[in-house]
Amino acid sequence: MLEKLLLNHYEAAAVILSGIGLTNLLLQRNLIKKIIGLNIMDTAVYLFLAAKGYVEGRAAPILIENGSGGWLTSSSLYVNPVPAGLVLTGIVVSVSVTAFALALTLKLYEHYGTLNIDEALLKMTHEQEVLEEKITKAEEEVLA
Amino acid sequence: MNEEIKTIWRNFFNWIMGNGPRPENEVIPPEPPPDLPFTQKPKDKYSRFHEATLKERYSQWQEIHGLHIFSMLYSGLSVLTCIVIVSLLLATVAELPPFGDEKNPANNEVIRRYVEHGGHETGAQNIVAGLILDYRAFDTFGESAVLFTAAVSVLMILGISRRNIFPDKASPKAAQTGENYLLRAPPRLHVFKEDDAILRAVASLSIPAIILLGCVVVINGHLTPGGGFSGGAILSTALILCANAYGFERVHKFFNEKTFIVSSSTALMIYALSKGYSFFTGANHFHSIIPKGTIGNILSGGLILPLNICVGLIVAGTLYGFYALFSEGEI
Q1: Chain B stretch 166-225, residues whose beta carbon is closer than 8 A to a beta carbon of chain A
Q2: What residues in B contact A51, CB-CB < 8 Å?
Q3: CATH top-level class for A2-55+84-143?
Q4: What would the pLDDT profile of A3-51 be if each residue is shown by its tens digit?
Q5: Residue B107 · residue A55 · CB < 8 Å
Q6: Number of CB atoms found within 10 A of residue B141's CB
Q7: Per-domain residue ranges for chain B?
Q8: Neighbours of B84 (CB within 10 A)
Q9: What tens digit of pLDDT does each residue of A58-93 get?
Q10: B127 in reach of chain A (CB within 8 A)
Q11: Tell me, what's the ipTM?
Q12: Across the interface, do B153 and A103 touch by the CB < 8 Å criterion?
């Protein structure tokens, strides 16, 4: 198994990287670090796709001139162009999701003054309790 | 025998219900003062351990140790989950075909078709550009729409609420009268240094070069590596550098929220209409009036060049918009 893993060392590195990202996502209590973990997982996916598209000894998929005004279009000359397009999709979605998550984190920090998710949750429950007390008080006033 | 079982059962019942025998070395805490206010409860309710029921003892133990044990359990379980997932995936990777082999199942007839016919079918020298902007152009349209939606969402979350909190940004009159002063949010995250001569000199030298490079990457997207996404990212770095060196007011003179919305929406509309036309004519065997051009010329590839420019505009505006929203609160 180790021999096969060494043969596919790019894919193995991508899988380990995604594991590091997932652990980061689960273990970190800081929201910014959680988002960094998500980005590490994204990077692992790009590495995996790029490794899957590579073919030994072939050029990038940009047509080469054959010297007499034509183009070399033999498929045995170029690497797989499809993973490049897929990685592009991945990068765009990753950028969008990261920006949206960071915006929400910024709002959370402005409201609660902390990036730690446990502290924010504590403050959130406290806020909820205060709100419920207010509501019961208002209800009592209305009834009285 | 029967009596013994009964005694054991009684002891067990007492242990559960909290009526157990008093231990010999027990220190009885002083009674709380009797004239406590009605609402105030004595703090050590269950200081005498044997008098608490099992449930109360459990909740007391939970209050003291629960969070610690839960966090330890959580960390352990999450590490274990990750190890299990990674080992499963590694076992899968070991079964994959070897890296870089041309006989891999991924290198099938789809790739042969794209590489051998992509040149004369799309007119693009860069096969990836022909792939993402001609064969799979609706996919790329979705990507641009996702990026634009993300920018609009960030604008909704950060921009408008900041404007409500900062009354001086919404209306100068409210700032002068000083009303809603208490509602002010913490000061701006981005502090602009007025006289940064080194940054300004470097920016004045490098911004034209960066813009030139970005335009080259966008316009040559169908000939060389690059395209709308990478070129747009380069163009947005020029805008960000300009904002850092000369201040956001300088950028506002030619790029503000209105410009961003108008340019991005126009680019998306042009993209949707032109690609809709090309798909309609292509799929229904109508004659398309868009010429393919000769491969390798700058005016070739049919719609790829205008689509690249559209995508470049959207990406440049969006990435600069993210930076401006996060540092300043408005585009």
Answers
A1: 185-186, 223-225
A2: 99
A3: mainly alpha
A4: 888 888 999 999 999 999 999 999 999 999 999 999 999 999 999 999 9
A5: yes
A6: 19
A7: 1-19+45-93, 127-327
A8: 11
A9: 888 888 888 887 888 888 888 888 998 899 999 999
A10: yes
A11: 0.86
A12: yes
